[in-house]
Amino acid sequence: MEWLPRVSGPEDLVGLDAEALQQLAAEVRQTIVETVAGNGGHLGASLGTVELTLALHTVFDSPTDRIIWDTGHQAYGHKLLTGRFPQFATLRQPGGLSGFLKRRESPHDVWEAGHAGTSLSAALGMAKARDLKGDRHAVVAVIGDGALTAGMALEALNNIGHSQSRVIVVLNDNGMSISRNVGALPSYLARLRTEPAYLRLREDVQWLLQRVPLIGPAMVRTAQRVKESLKHLVLPGMLFEELGLTYLGPIDGHNVAALQDVLRQATQVEGPVLCHVVTVKGKGYAPTEEKPEASHSWGGPFDPKTGKLFARAAGRPTFTRVFSDTLIAAATRDPRVVAITAAMPEGTGLDRFAERFPDRCFDVGIAEQHAVTFAAGLAAEGLRPVCAVYSTFLQRAYDQVVHDVAHQSLPVVFALDRAGVVGADGATHQGVFDIAYLRHIPGMALIAPKDEAELQSALLTALARDDGPTALRYPRGEGLGVPLQEEPVPLPWGRGEILVEQGRDCLVLALGTLCAEAVRAAHVLAEDGVGVTVVNARFCKPLDADLILSLARACGAVVTVEEHTATGGFGSAVLELLAAHDVAVRASVLGLADLFLDHGRPADQLRSSGLCAGGIASAVRGLLEGQLGALRAGARGVGV
Ligand SMILES: Cc1ncc(C[n+]2csc(CCOP(=O)(O)OP(=O)(O)O)c2C)c(N)n1
What we know:
Elements: H1 18-39, H2 43-48, H3 50-59, E1 66-69, H4 76-84, H5 119-133, E2 139-144, H6 151-163, E3 168-173, H7 184-194, H8 196-211, H9 216-234, H10 238-242, E4 246-252, H11 256-268, E5 273-278, H12 286-290, H13 292-295, H14 319-333, E6 337-341, H15 345-348, H16 350-356, E7 361-363, H17 368-380, E8 384-390, H18 391-394, H19 398-406, E9 413-417, H20 434-438, E10 445-447, H21 452-464, E11 470-473, E12 497-501, E13 506-510, H22 515-527, E14 532-536, E15 539-541, H23 545-555, E16 557-565, H24 570-580, E17 586-592, H25 602-608, H26 613-623, H27 628-635
Parallel strand pairs: 1-2, 2-3, 3-5, 4-5, 6-7, 6-8, 8-9, 9-11, 10-11, 13-14, 13-16, 16-17
Antiparallel strand pairs: 10-15, 12-14
Helix pairs in contact: 3-11, 5-6, 8-9, 14-16, 14-21, 17-19, 22-26
The structure holds thiamine diphosphate.
């Protein structure tokens, strides 16, 4: 490493010649590969933007000029060139650098994200603020072709073109979302980038346009008309031009000098500009270049020399895998079952469904809002759509769930993967708000299975419902290792399940996979003479009111447990139920605190929130304070 350790900010790039920049690019790539090999992360995207990052930081004066990275997963190079090389080894580690951008990490991170498609709206907002304040700096948004399929990116483009504000949009087009990018817009971009005839034609037309003589007013009008119609016919980028943005490109996104040229040109344009930059996802590292589909997150840990993943012991099946197998089996029996993903076929397990039922699986692009209303349309025609989406990403489609699905009582199934704490992806990706944003919607049912076998039943239960939507929430990663059902059966509707009955000192109501911790807590407490009843609530809505009310009355103390924010979640639902029935008991709601939880180890994060056997046991003890002495004495057989 010769150059990178010397770069403590973009100012250190000034005056570096082409050779030095090339060397620096190699060092940035090497650092990214070596770090992600150990820590995991978004490898392909950041490898693809190395030259673009160098060009941006040599042409613009960050942070005075604002560089906004859409999503922020492709910005490892930006981190390295803005003074974070010394901490880069801590990337995505607890307490270390975030895998996305963070305003508190650096003044160069002018915008935080994690969800795709926000950069253009943010850029226009910043540009308008600049104009109102009378400033002149540049505002640059770097957006991928995948993120450009997001509804809000298109809404912003529409607004940018209309506003004619000075915004520079850098379209980082690698033809990939996480998987191959899909849609009409990506096909259009692919034609711009790849059809040589198209490009040749552009050159010919430009040549011709320059030579149309402008003699006399009639001739001028005719010439203008000819120019316009020729432009309409063949000029690349006309879609963007028609929207009001000057189109520059396509440009080789791995040629720093060409990128610098085009970015400088962009700064000369008074209105909005779109620079179409063509990159290769995973560029400069053979394993990722060979497998761009897998390059998004390489899965680590791996050997940086070969890209080979280190062998891991064969794990238990993941929740995603069990969901996908159960869905395939259900779809085999019922031709009405169809599936929808918003650009996450692998992550949600729908890639396997698509292989089996290509005509019944729909990847709609990074378009969660559209995915939900599209599912509503399918359901309105009698199909049984399953919208498989990460808990965090369904946040974007809240109104569609309310207005298009629930309001019409349509039987759409929402399979919410990654519900709960997610680990290294951090604050923007935590799936900890879904109960709060779903449970108050009239007609919505919400099930959280305690393990992967119950997930099988939960999916069948949801698919069997025909009078409204049902959401299933299940966590990231491996199941608990319980035996799966050969012939899964649906759950009794709205019924919880008693898991432990050791006494009526306290009722522990647990939701989802934390049931296992609640059962462990019960055993710990029993040794202490505290006899609790543990219930697997299963349904967060409708709650099993009869069971909960009768046991709460009998116990006089209730602890609720959920892997979700404690505000507005399952515990809140239980408290509302108790209050509505005048059941006055001591109660404690165990959930996550009212804050954005950063990246970290899920087990640690749950433990520090009391969401573990020890935490549940102490919550029970806390409620029983005053009674404990008597209970312990009882356990030792001493009369009181
Ligand atoms: C709203 C939302 N849905 C899904 C995702 C998951 N996701 C992260 S990156 C990505 C692909 C982005 O593709 P693109 O913008 O082309 O960037 P590239 O990774 O190809 O550089 C997806 C689908 C997300 N971050 N946000």
